[in-house]
Every structure is written in structure tokens, then in C-alpha cells.
Amino acid sequence: MEVLERKCINPLRDELERIHAVALESISDFEAGEGTEVRRIGKLRGEFILLYKELVDLKASAQGMELNQIDGILSDLEALSRHAHDSTTCTYVPLEELYSMNQAS
Length: 105
Description:
mainly alpha, 5 helices
């Protein structure tokens, strides 16, 4: 009953928690990964672009406090991306730009 109530009350929270968990797992994989930093950052960028797209899609239909929740996860995702780039010699590119470049190709 509690799970059902929570799903009905705030299904967005569960989706945002899932997205955040995937982002943390991706960072963990990046940090533990083998191979060149270019390959590792490329894989991470690909994963983060997909998560970014999910958040942008959610934001398109969000209202009020939902927008703040989504913006918080977007901010966390961006901070994780910046942190990963700072640990490499690869150039940091904001997720919005990566997403736009990905859409154009």
C-alpha cells in the first residue's frame, strides 16, 4: 500500500531517483574503468547525454516544484560531468552543448 501511495503521490521523484542512480553508477564505472581516458570520457558523455535527454523530456511537461526537482538533478548531472572531465585532460563541454551537437549529427 505504501509503495502504491508513493507512486501515485510523486511518480516523478522515483524517475528522478532512478536517473540520479544511473548517473552515479556511470561515474563509478568511469572512475574504475580501464582503457584510455578518451574512451572512458566518451562512454560517460554518451550515457550522460541520454540521461540529459530524459530530463529535458521530463521538464517539457513539468510544472511548479517539479521543475525545481528536475533542475536539481540537471545541476547534479552537470557537476558530475565537470568532475569527471577535471580528472582527465579532455576538454569539458556542458551537457546542453553535447546534447545539441548530438541532435545535429
